[in-house]
Amino acid sequence: MEIFDGGSGSGRKKTFNKKWNWIGYLVLALILALIVIFFSIGLITDYIWMDTLNYASVFTTVLTSKILLGVSGFVLFAVGTFITLYWIRRSYIKHFDSSQLPPILLRWKPVMLIMLAISALVGLFGSSVIQGIGWERMLKFINHVTFGKTDPYFNMDISFYVYVLPFLNFVVFVLLGLAIFFLLVQIGAYSVFHMYRVSRSAQLHLGVTLGFIGLFLAGYHVLQPFGTLSTNQVNLFQESVVTGLSYTDDVINIPKSYVLAAVAIIMAVWMIVALIRGRLRSVMIPIIAYIGLAVIGQGASVVVQNFIVSPNEFSKEKPYLEDNLSYTKAAYDLDSIAEEQHPGNHSLSKEMVERNSGTIDNVRMNDSRPLLDVYNQLQTFRTYYEFNDVDIDRYQVDGNYEQVFLGARELNTKDLPSQAKTWVNQNLRYTHGYGMAMSHVNQVTAQGQPKYMLKNLPPEGDLDVSRPQLYFGEEPYKNVIVNSEVEEFDYPSGDENVDTKFKADTGIPLSGINRLLFALNEGTFRMLISDQVTSDSQLLATRNIMDRVNRIAPFFTYDKDPYLVVRDDGTVVWMLDAYLSAENYPYSESFQGQTNYIRNSVKVSVDAYTGEVNFYMANPDDPLMQTFKNIFPDLFTEDIPDDIKAHFRYPEKLFTVQASMYGTYHMSDLEVFYNREDFWQFPTEKYFNEDTEMEPYYTTLKLPDQEEEEFILMIPYTPKNRQNMIAWMGVRNDGENYGDMFVYRFPKQRNIYGPQQIENRINQDSEISQELNLWSQGGSEVIRGNLLAIPIEDTVLYVEPIYIESNNETSLPEVKRVVVAYEDQIVMDANFDQALEKILKKVDPGMEDDEDQEDDKPDDTPDSSKPILDAEEQLKEFSDKFKAYKQALSEGNWQEAAEIMDELEGMLEKKQTPDQPEPSDNQQSSGNNNNPNNSDATNETE
């Protein structure tokens, strides 16, 4: 009876266990299925998104390479791990009695499952590492294009160092790292009861692994000499004066690498034989020899560097310095720079100004940083609009070539009231920004505000904008759904809002399975169940332009300053600069990390309305560009529209890198180059009341040998630890001359004022400093704008705008004065024209005589050249009135502020000179300018 009951219970228990086993398997299968679905949805939605932009082939190319490398990495790591674990288990079973081993090791099925699971986990890790790091290296290695230039030592094409060597190093390091990992596992396993001393199987296993390590170490050492061509590290403790191959590398480090490679192979063979024969002590002989030779090699390098190179460094490094100089210039495209002498004459005259009217008319009177505050207060109109940036560009306006400021009025719903932040509003209704503001760089109103060329809603002004809606921009935009049952808000018009519909088909259609897939991907079921989303609806995804281009082509480095362009047909696009960079360019000094080669070979446009992205080949001859063209043949557009090409800007980041490098590598004499005797650096200037390093800036000027003005990016140079200007570098931006770089050197035998010297003279000028001190009283702040060095024919003029801003939150920076400096003369006046006229009178006596002759004629207009009586008292009166005006603004007394401003304007009119322009009809009182919440007042100001 007991037997019967026991058997019955046992049967029920087995049945119960089987059921639970099946349930466990189902749960495990369900979890795996969910993981697969989760990753699959991401891949599928990414593919659909790329396909809507016609870049599906880019996605599949990258995915295919990652899958191939991922599978290879999984197999390599998993198989290697399984063999290692299997060998260890077999060694244990052979060495120990079954009673001495854990029972689990003797059961084949569970131990097999455990080994497979561990191997799979290690394989997944290896797969992620190899495909994540290696896919781009592999594609470049397979598709690379030669540079057509070889290094002077190994006579290898540059492409070997840029493409082949990184891939070979990657393979060697992966294999070496994996072999060392297996060795550590084996040491841990065979340390039990000192198995490595008595187990032949363990000894053989360790020997084979050590053999692989020796082989991979030999491969590493064989590749080492090629690496010496792109570093200045000669040993663990010292650096050479040369970037690239040096005397110590040539004499010690390269031969040492080959010796260590041979020793590594001998070491591997020796250890395998020693372990097979059981001679454990002899295993240490090659290891000690290898370590000893490595230490001796380091010591020899230190000795040679200290006692042979250092005492006579220039003589020893001279041939290598020449290669460093030559190849660095090639890597940064500096070897074609045209250098000319600039006389720096004292030749400014009225006739010269008239000959260069295009340059004079485009001298910047505004800076982008304070101008951004003005745009955000006067041209946003609603709390959900925002200007992120103000960029500089050039346009043909009414037949005139003019430099302009331009900013996009983007949508930012973070400041919407909380009750308005509904799903419908944030995803269906508020979908885009609207329009832009554009202003002259050289004109301001009587109140010191920008003079607009485009303003208001909808945009009105000098350019026709046919599609002012900005669905894509610099804001951190959320994904939105267009063409739903909800009308999209377009722009405010009086007390009403104007609505619109998206009229393009560049979004992701939310029909069929797409709606389910993207609802899951977005993590919102509102998209799936909402009756306001129809089969005609489209999802606009990844609307931030930087995220958008990075998602399409993550293998480029993008400039962080995109800029807006209004095309000839009135459509609006964003322009971005993409950089192609490389490491290991022989003999080239790096500018960031190990990166020592850079080109701006790709220009990217993103349509602000449709989101369409185009990658233009701006430099098709660049070997990196050609390599990427081989990898992604469908990514690039070769035909560049004229209205896009007309707005290409040479990027400031690239120019800064090149100009910084040229500060050292302009020296052609090797001894001067070695001693850095003629090192150039960027000057400093006072900007926003702080001394800061000057950045490159765009300006419009006529070069001495040209007939018309051009858009130039330029930077002055000063000698190291000096403030006088020694040279200036520029790069052309227009037409066929795009990218042509040039340098003008100033005479070394006399002083040419540098930017910081001009800044110091502004501070030391008694009249200017007195007036600025008056402005700064009463809670106002004087802001110094960018100091611009403007070359005009054979001379240089300096210009700096002065801003005044009160300390209250609603204040606006206003251009109140302009400083013009020339040679030993420096003046400040209400605008550039008056300041320039004063300078001309000081430096051109003939002009002064002409003015005197004019003064002899009867004229009732006041003479600006005569001193103003009681100037200090009048300035004090102006200062008191201005303080009262600022106080009224800070207290919100708009009417009182307007009355005070009327009094100030009346006082100014009494003192106004004949050549000072009257305020235009659209330049109204600043009492309204400082009320950003009053749209009517804002419109009057404009």
UniProtKB/TrEMBL annotation:
Is Cell membrane one of the keywords? yes
Name the residue ranges with Low complexity bias.
919-936
- Annotated InterPro entries: UPF0182
Keywords recorded for this protein, A-Z: Cell membrane, Membrane, Transmembrane, Transmembrane helix
> What is the topology of this protein in the membrane according to its UniProt annotation?
Multi-pass membrane protein
Q: Where is the composition biased (Acidic residues)?
A: 846-862
Which Pfam families does UniProt cross-reference here? UPF0182 (PF03699)
Its main localization is: membrane
The regions listed as transmembrane in this protein's record are 22-47, 67-89, 110-130, 160-184, 204-223, 257-276, 288-308
- Which cell locations does it reside in? Cell membrane
Q: Domain of life here?
A: Bacteria
The answer on whether this UniProt entry bears the keyword Membrane reads: yes
Q: Where is this region: Disordered?
A: 843-871, 896-942
Report the family membership: Belongs to the UPF0182 family.
Name of the protein = UPF0182 protein GCM10008983_04040
Which species does this protein come from? Lentibacillus halophilus
